Amino acid sequence: MTAIYLIGLREGLEITLVVSILVAFLVKSDRGHLLKFVWAGVAAAALLSIGFAALLEAGAATLSFEQQELFEACASFAAVIFVTWMIFWMRRMARRMAAELRGRLEEAIQVGAWAIAGMAFLAVVREGLETSILFYAAAQGTKDSAQPLIGISLGLLTAVVLGWLLYASAVRINLTRFFTWTGALLVLVAAGIFKYGVHDLQESGVLPGINTHAYDVTGVLPPDAWYAELLRGMFNITPQPTVLETVAWLGYGIPVLVLFLLPLLKKAPKPAAEPAGAATSA
User: Would you say residue 282 has pLDDT above 60?
Assistant: First the structure.
Protein backbone atom coordinates (compact mmCIF):
# COMPACT_ATOMS: atom_id res chain seq x y z
CA MET A 1 0.00 0.00 0.00
CA THR A 2 2.92 2.35 0.68
CA ALA A 3 4.21 2.04 -2.88
CA ILE A 4 0.73 2.70 -4.29
CA TYR A 5 0.35 5.69 -1.93
CA LEU A 6 3.61 7.09 -3.32
CA ILE A 7 2.34 6.61 -6.88
CA GLY A 8 -0.92 8.38 -6.03
CA LEU A 9 0.93 11.23 -4.27
CA ARG A 10 3.44 11.76 -7.07
CA GLU A 11 0.99 11.50 -9.98
CA GLY A 12 -1.72 13.33 -8.07
CA LEU A 13 0.54 16.25 -7.27
CA GLU A 14 1.46 16.58 -10.95
CA ILE A 15 -2.25 16.70 -11.81
CA THR A 16 -3.09 19.23 -9.08
CA LEU A 17 -0.14 21.40 -10.11
CA VAL A 18 -1.35 21.45 -13.70
CA VAL A 19 -4.91 22.31 -12.65
CA SER A 20 -3.83 24.97 -10.13
CA ILE A 21 -1.64 26.67 -12.76
CA LEU A 22 -4.55 26.81 -15.21
CA VAL A 23 -6.98 28.06 -12.56
CA ALA A 24 -4.56 30.68 -11.22
CA PHE A 25 -3.87 32.00 -14.73
CA LEU A 26 -7.57 32.44 -15.49
CA VAL A 27 -8.33 34.03 -12.12
CA LYS A 28 -5.42 36.47 -12.24
CA SER A 29 -6.26 37.50 -15.82
CA ASP A 30 -9.90 38.21 -14.90
CA ARG A 31 -11.21 35.28 -16.93
CA GLY A 32 -12.87 33.44 -14.08
CA HIS A 33 -15.95 32.82 -16.23
CA LEU A 34 -13.87 30.31 -18.22
CA LEU A 35 -13.10 28.12 -15.19
CA LYS A 36 -16.10 25.90 -15.88
CA PHE A 37 -14.46 24.73 -19.10
CA VAL A 38 -11.26 23.83 -17.24
CA TRP A 39 -13.26 21.80 -14.70
CA ALA A 40 -15.21 20.13 -17.51
CA GLY A 41 -11.96 18.99 -19.12
CA VAL A 42 -10.58 17.80 -15.77
CA ALA A 43 -13.77 15.87 -14.99
CA ALA A 44 -13.77 14.17 -18.40
CA ALA A 45 -10.11 13.17 -17.95
CA ALA A 46 -10.81 11.78 -14.45
CA LEU A 47 -13.79 9.72 -15.68
CA LEU A 48 -11.77 8.31 -18.58
CA SER A 49 -8.90 7.37 -16.27
CA ILE A 50 -11.22 5.64 -13.78
CA GLY A 51 -12.96 3.83 -16.62
CA PHE A 52 -9.63 2.70 -18.03
CA ALA A 53 -8.56 1.30 -14.64
CA ALA A 54 -11.89 -0.57 -14.34
CA LEU A 55 -11.46 -1.91 -17.88
CA LEU A 56 -8.00 -3.25 -17.05
CA GLU A 57 -9.36 -5.05 -13.99
CA ALA A 58 -12.44 -6.41 -15.77
CA GLY A 59 -10.46 -7.54 -18.81
CA ALA A 60 -7.96 -9.46 -16.70
CA ALA A 61 -10.74 -11.26 -14.80
CA THR A 62 -12.03 -12.97 -17.97
CA LEU A 63 -8.68 -14.52 -18.90
CA SER A 64 -7.27 -17.95 -18.13
CA PHE A 65 -4.43 -18.24 -15.60
CA GLU A 66 -1.69 -18.21 -18.25
CA GLN A 67 -3.35 -15.37 -20.18
CA GLN A 68 -3.85 -13.37 -16.99
CA GLU A 69 -0.17 -13.76 -16.10
CA LEU A 70 0.82 -12.57 -19.58
CA PHE A 71 -1.62 -9.65 -19.34
CA GLU A 72 -0.24 -8.64 -15.95
CA ALA A 73 3.31 -8.92 -17.28
CA CYS A 74 2.48 -6.60 -20.18
CA ALA A 75 0.80 -4.14 -17.78
CA SER A 76 3.88 -4.24 -15.53
CA PHE A 77 6.27 -3.54 -18.42
CA ALA A 78 4.02 -0.75 -19.72
CA ALA A 79 3.95 0.77 -16.23
CA VAL A 80 7.76 0.65 -16.04
CA ILE A 81 8.03 2.42 -19.40
CA PHE A 82 5.54 5.10 -18.31
CA VAL A 83 7.12 5.73 -14.91
CA THR A 84 10.63 5.87 -16.38
CA TRP A 85 9.58 8.40 -19.01
CA MET A 86 7.56 10.37 -16.44
CA ILE A 87 10.29 10.83 -13.84
CA PHE A 88 12.88 11.95 -16.40
CA TRP A 89 10.36 14.25 -18.10
CA MET A 90 9.32 15.85 -14.81
CA ARG A 91 12.95 16.32 -13.75
CA ARG A 92 13.49 18.34 -16.92
CA MET A 93 10.16 20.19 -16.97
CA ALA A 94 9.56 20.99 -13.27
CA ARG A 95 11.01 24.50 -13.49
CA ARG A 96 9.34 25.63 -16.71
CA MET A 97 6.04 23.72 -16.58
CA ALA A 98 4.05 26.75 -15.41
CA ALA A 99 5.22 29.02 -18.24
CA GLU A 100 4.54 26.34 -20.85
CA LEU A 101 1.02 25.66 -19.56
CA ARG A 102 0.18 29.37 -19.46
CA GLY A 103 1.32 29.75 -23.06
CA ARG A 104 -0.82 26.82 -24.20
CA LEU A 105 -3.83 28.15 -22.30
CA GLU A 106 -3.48 31.59 -23.87
CA GLU A 107 -3.50 29.95 -27.29
CA ALA A 108 -6.57 27.88 -26.36
CA ILE A 109 -8.43 31.01 -25.23
CA GLN A 110 -7.88 32.55 -28.63
CA VAL A 111 -9.38 29.47 -30.32
CA GLY A 112 -12.49 29.20 -28.15
CA ALA A 113 -13.96 28.14 -24.84
CA TRP A 114 -14.10 24.42 -25.64
CA ALA A 115 -10.46 24.51 -26.67
CA ILE A 116 -9.77 25.36 -23.02
CA ALA A 117 -11.67 22.25 -21.94
CA GLY A 118 -9.72 20.22 -24.49
CA MET A 119 -6.41 21.57 -23.26
CA ALA A 120 -7.28 20.85 -19.62
CA PHE A 121 -8.44 17.36 -20.63
CA LEU A 122 -5.21 16.57 -22.49
CA ALA A 123 -3.06 18.01 -19.70
CA VAL A 124 -4.73 15.81 -17.08
CA VAL A 125 -5.62 12.64 -19.00
CA ARG A 126 -2.00 11.69 -19.67
CA GLU A 127 -1.27 11.69 -15.95
CA GLY A 128 -4.57 9.93 -15.23
CA LEU A 129 -3.95 7.08 -17.66
CA GLU A 130 -0.40 6.69 -16.36
CA THR A 131 -1.79 6.49 -12.83
CA SER A 132 -4.28 3.80 -13.90
CA ILE A 133 -1.58 1.61 -15.44
CA LEU A 134 0.82 2.13 -12.55
CA PHE A 135 -1.94 1.40 -10.05
CA TYR A 136 -2.96 -1.82 -11.80
CA ALA A 137 0.63 -3.04 -12.11
CA ALA A 138 1.59 -2.20 -8.51
CA ALA A 139 -1.62 -3.70 -7.11
CA GLN A 140 -0.75 -7.17 -8.46
CA GLY A 141 1.59 -7.82 -5.55
CA THR A 142 -0.93 -7.06 -2.79
CA LYS A 143 -2.81 -9.75 -0.90
CA ASP A 144 -5.65 -7.53 0.32
CA SER A 145 -7.81 -6.13 -2.49
CA ALA A 146 -8.76 -3.11 -0.34
CA GLN A 147 -5.19 -1.94 0.28
CA PRO A 148 -4.51 -0.65 -3.27
CA LEU A 149 -7.71 1.43 -3.23
CA ILE A 150 -6.88 2.83 0.20
CA GLY A 151 -3.31 3.60 -0.84
CA ILE A 152 -4.18 5.34 -4.11
CA SER A 153 -7.04 7.28 -2.46
CA LEU A 154 -4.82 8.52 0.38
CA GLY A 155 -2.08 9.46 -2.07
CA LEU A 156 -4.45 11.43 -4.31
CA LEU A 157 -6.10 13.08 -1.31
CA THR A 158 -2.71 14.16 0.05
CA ALA A 159 -1.81 15.53 -3.38
CA VAL A 160 -5.05 17.53 -3.56
CA VAL A 161 -4.43 19.03 -0.11
CA LEU A 162 -0.84 19.94 -1.03
CA GLY A 163 -1.99 21.39 -4.34
CA TRP A 164 -4.62 23.53 -2.62
CA LEU A 165 -2.11 24.75 -0.04
CA LEU A 166 0.35 25.62 -2.81
CA TYR A 167 -2.38 27.46 -4.71
CA ALA A 168 -3.35 29.37 -1.59
CA SER A 169 0.36 30.08 -0.92
CA ALA A 170 -0.03 28.66 2.58
CA VAL A 171 3.05 26.48 2.09
CA ARG A 172 6.04 26.67 -0.18
CA ILE A 173 8.05 23.59 -1.06
CA ASN A 174 10.94 23.11 -3.43
CA LEU A 175 9.14 21.26 -6.22
CA THR A 176 12.35 20.43 -8.05
CA ARG A 177 13.71 18.75 -4.93
CA PHE A 178 10.37 17.04 -4.24
CA PHE A 179 10.17 15.53 -7.72
CA THR A 180 13.83 14.52 -7.57
CA TRP A 181 13.56 12.46 -4.39
CA THR A 182 10.13 11.01 -5.11
CA GLY A 183 11.46 10.20 -8.57
CA ALA A 184 14.38 8.30 -7.06
CA LEU A 185 11.97 6.32 -4.89
CA LEU A 186 9.77 5.62 -7.90
CA VAL A 187 12.78 4.20 -9.77
CA LEU A 188 13.03 1.58 -7.02
CA VAL A 189 9.26 1.03 -7.14
CA ALA A 190 9.51 0.58 -10.92
CA ALA A 191 12.32 -1.94 -10.42
CA GLY A 192 9.93 -3.94 -8.26
CA ILE A 193 7.17 -3.68 -10.89
CA PHE A 194 9.64 -4.85 -13.54
CA LYS A 195 10.42 -7.80 -11.30
CA TYR A 196 6.67 -8.54 -11.04
CA GLY A 197 6.53 -8.64 -14.82
CA VAL A 198 9.38 -11.13 -15.06
CA HIS A 199 7.76 -13.27 -12.36
CA ASP A 200 4.47 -13.27 -14.29
CA LEU A 201 6.29 -14.41 -17.43
CA GLN A 202 7.83 -17.23 -15.43
CA GLU A 203 4.42 -18.16 -13.97
CA SER A 204 2.94 -18.28 -17.48
CA GLY A 205 5.76 -20.50 -18.75
CA VAL A 206 7.18 -17.94 -21.19
CA LEU A 207 10.40 -17.67 -19.18
CA PRO A 208 12.08 -20.57 -17.36
CA GLY A 209 13.52 -20.72 -13.85
CA ILE A 210 10.45 -20.32 -11.64
CA ASN A 211 12.03 -22.75 -9.13
CA THR A 212 15.62 -21.51 -9.53
CA HIS A 213 16.21 -19.12 -6.64
CA ALA A 214 19.03 -16.60 -6.46
CA TYR A 215 19.17 -16.74 -2.67
CA ASP A 216 17.04 -17.60 0.36
CA VAL A 217 17.08 -15.24 3.37
CA THR A 218 13.75 -16.28 4.89
CA GLY A 219 15.64 -16.96 8.11
CA VAL A 220 16.52 -13.28 8.59
CA LEU A 221 13.62 -11.84 6.55
CA PRO A 222 10.50 -13.85 7.51
CA PRO A 223 7.76 -13.30 4.89
CA ASP A 224 5.15 -12.63 7.60
CA ALA A 225 7.23 -9.93 9.36
CA TRP A 226 6.06 -6.32 9.02
CA TYR A 227 9.41 -5.12 7.67
CA ALA A 228 9.45 -7.92 5.07
CA GLU A 229 5.95 -6.91 4.00
CA LEU A 230 7.05 -3.26 3.77
CA LEU A 231 10.04 -4.13 1.56
CA ARG A 232 7.89 -6.35 -0.63
CA GLY A 233 5.09 -3.82 -0.91
CA MET A 234 7.37 -0.86 -1.62
CA PHE A 235 10.14 -2.29 -3.79
CA ASN A 236 9.18 -5.97 -4.30
CA ILE A 237 12.26 -7.10 -2.37
CA THR A 238 11.44 -10.68 -1.37
CA PRO A 239 13.39 -13.21 0.72
CA GLN A 240 13.41 -15.93 -1.99
CA PRO A 241 13.48 -14.43 -5.51
CA THR A 242 14.37 -16.32 -8.67
CA VAL A 243 17.59 -15.65 -10.53
CA LEU A 244 15.78 -13.87 -13.38
CA GLU A 245 13.78 -11.73 -10.95
CA THR A 246 16.99 -10.63 -9.23
CA VAL A 247 18.69 -9.87 -12.54
CA ALA A 248 15.63 -7.86 -13.64
CA TRP A 249 15.48 -5.81 -10.41
CA LEU A 250 19.19 -5.00 -10.38
CA GLY A 251 19.45 -4.61 -14.18
CA TYR A 252 16.77 -1.92 -14.19
CA GLY A 253 17.12 -0.32 -10.75
CA ILE A 254 20.86 0.39 -10.58
CA PRO A 255 21.52 1.93 -14.03
CA VAL A 256 18.26 3.95 -14.12
CA LEU A 257 18.84 5.30 -10.60
CA VAL A 258 22.39 6.32 -11.50
CA LEU A 259 21.22 8.06 -14.70
CA PHE A 260 18.43 9.82 -12.83
CA LEU A 261 20.68 11.10 -10.02
CA LEU A 262 23.65 11.88 -12.30
CA PRO A 263 22.81 15.62 -12.61
CA LEU A 264 22.77 15.87 -8.80
CA LEU A 265 26.12 14.14 -8.56
CA LYS A 266 27.59 16.55 -11.12
CA LYS A 267 26.25 19.55 -9.18
CA ALA A 268 27.60 18.33 -5.84
CA PRO A 269 30.06 20.88 -4.40
CA LYS A 270 33.68 19.86 -4.72
CA PRO A 271 35.84 19.90 -1.56
CA ALA A 272 37.89 23.04 -1.13
CA ALA A 273 41.44 22.75 -2.42
CA GLU A 274 44.09 22.48 0.29
CA PRO A 275 46.21 25.66 0.53
CA ALA A 276 49.63 25.37 -1.00
CA GLY A 277 52.24 24.33 1.50
CA ALA A 278 49.68 23.22 4.07
CA ALA A 279 50.77 19.60 3.80
CA THR A 280 54.42 20.47 4.38
CA SER A 281 53.93 23.05 7.12
CA ALA A 282 53.49 20.46 9.84
Answer: no
